[in-house]
Amino acid sequence: MPTADRPSLSVVVPAHENPSALDTTLRSLTRQTLPAADFEVVVGDDGSAVALGPVVDAYRGRLRIEYVRSDRNRGRSANRNAAAARARAATLMFLDADTVAHPTLLKRHRDFHAGRAGRPGVLLGQRYDLDWAGADALRRGEPVVPAMLDAERGDPRLEDIALPQRMGDFPSAPWVLGLTHNASVDHESFRRVGGFDEAMVKWGFEDLEFFYRVFHLHGAPPELFRLDVDALSYHLPHFRKTSNGIASMDNMKYLLRKHLRYDVEVLYGINTFGRHLGRIRLYGAAIEAYRSGGLGRPDVLPGSLRDELATSAALVVGNGVSALDLGPGSHTFDHDAPVGGTNSHLLGTVLQQFKAGALDLIVNVDMWRCLLPEDLPAFLTRGLLKADRIELVASRTGLDQRALLPVPLVADLDYVADMLRPHFSVAVAAYDAATVITLR
């Protein structure tokens, strides 16, 4: 039961400038079906030019509310962490200062976590992106009517995963949909992962990165996250800087340096939320299928290629390849070995950690055969900016391509070689244990 010292829910509202939006958001929290005694509100002011304290003070008689102000703009992560540090409840709910809560929103978040009986969990709510009419209605205290919520105002995450097969992808990487405009997490998980990464001071991806760590903290259980389409909120119009998109790519590159795994690498491509989910699920299944099928093993490499690897700066991709004798400056993408200084759990579609010309060659043992047709060109094109040549090694195997579905497997090597010839210098050589396609 909530008490005067310990409410059941702490609503963390990070804010920067735009006092009118914050006022509208706080007003919506006075109209909740969850009793005001059951929750608290902590507003974090990230160094607004004009302090937002007066906006907060206007609600002290109607809400249990706290105000935390930074004397400078430290970024979205630091602001959320500073506000969360003042929160007292066992459940933290993050609500952006330009996101208006439906009257039942807080109760849905509180009830989800109460129903987990102390087990960790994350609830992701949905939002409508309002235009002027919807925003004006909320500012006047009037209801939002269906005409204000047509398809153009919907939550893009829900549009992307509306198809049944996309909902099936959600448990594989629910953090991809982890936007903090309307989301809650148990306080203990927040504490254990250390909150939001304050090194991410620019716009974008800091919330996904936080939920990524929560997901993997608990071993990636499929039931940890729930997407609740009835946990409604309304996103107010606000000025979006065109530079935000460029800044977000800097954060994306930071994520790839921090988490050397394929599920983060997939996000680098321009795609919908749903297709990101599908690729993470598919490539996770591919890594397991290739391992169980005995693919990617270094013992199929021709002796001449092994000898060259011992003296070259190379990137070698495959299962067990980190045990090879490799030359100075070499790296591996080996999913059978722990991530370390020279080994990553990546696919190779980005290769941002290598400078142009840093490698003598790239050798990919079978893992290239699992890349989707739109991802293989990225690996090859970027790879030949980093290395003089690429060796695509295909083990001779009795695996049935159709039996692996939906995991992809290149089986017709002649077709692939013909496809690549207009774009690269291509040579094909057959050995006892493998066929090797050389690209320059």
TrEMBL record:
Entry keywords, A to Z: Transferase
Superkingdom of the organism of origin: Bacteria
UniProt key word Transferase: yes
Annotated Gene3D superfamilies: Spore Coat Polysaccharide Biosynthesis Protein SpsA, Chain A
Location of the Glycosyltransferase 2-like domain: 10-109
Pfam families: Glyco_transf_7C, Glycos_transf_2
InterPro entries in alphabetical order: Galactosyl_T_C, Glyco_trans_2-like, Nucleotide-diphossugar_trans
GO molecular function term, any single one: transferase activity
Galactosyltransferase C-terminal domain boundaries: 184-219
Protein name: Glycosyl transferase family 2
Organism: Micromonospora chalcea
